[in-house]
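Forwarding the complex inputs:
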Amino acid sequence: MLDRLSFPQPWLSLTLFATWQFLSDGISGGSVVLGIVLAWGIPQLTRGFWPDRPAVIRGWRAPAYALRVLWDIIVASVEVAKLILSPRQPRPMFICYPLELDHPLAISILVSTISLTPGTVGADVSDDNKLILIHSLDAEDEQEVIDTIRARYERPLLEMFR
Amino acid sequence: MILIALYITIAMVTLAALLNVYRVIKGPDAPDRVLALDTLYVNAIALIVLLGITLQTRMYLESALLIAVMGFVGTVAMAKYLKRGSVIE
Amino acid sequence: MSTFAEYAVSALLLVGGAFTLIGAIGLARLPDFYTRLHGPTKATTVGVGAIVVSSVIYFSTLGRGIGIEEVLITAFLFMTAPVSANFLAKAAMHLEVKTTENTRGQTWDQ
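Prediction (whole assembly, three chains):
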């Protein structure tokens, strides 16, 4: 029992604790106790779902990436909005994107980014984590889309997960 | 001025919800319907937030948060059911 | 409430409403499932995000404090939208949903 009294993911526990304090009406003895119980219990219960931690995450690169993605999301929605309102038919295309990343967390961040940014939705990751299937709403050329994603999103992620 | 913008926005979001309902009814496939329901709950969150601003109360925000969590779980469960034929394996 | 905040809240509300509506129009009029996936994941998420941010500004200028609920809702929407889109795309590929005629490239199903 005593060996279970640990916090395997300290950052997750801290986030859970802080979120619980904000959600309850003001910090009191009860909310602190319940917050500690949640911060201990949830990581224990979800232990099996967490992938192995990456060797090094260079966390200081994350804010720049997040800002770039946020900006691209705004640009992307304007582009999709224009396309939806214009009368011409879109030219959809499925694209196989060869991955350079190999860490599962990095891949899932990349797929989420692709889904939120210009004209593309990440549809599937192959079982051996080598390919992503992307659906593009309005693409001229397969190689152009691959190059954009490679330069704009995958390279920074490669730098971050080394 | 905020009140006028609020009414226009409520009208637009309501229209959007009606279009989603049209897609839920029309289909043609099951994933289309699940996608439309997914969009519908996101629009419901927007409507609840707008209602909160109109009535100048923050009470409804907690229900919006609950809808966000439950809606996501529901969408994932339905998508998983469509793919595998069962939710929990 | 200052005039600037009033303008900001109104503008964010209108932009958010417009994006939500455009997302729904995309869902209603685009030709096949995979193209319809684009409207809700981008336009609707940004639209509802803008509406929620306008609520943050509105209540904080009224002096009711910055709400953690709004921040949580926005963060949650932006995290979940790509995940549910991905799950639905996988389900659609498994069910071999029809694509429009001018779609290039192939789906796969493992």
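Chain B has a mean pLDDT of 88.
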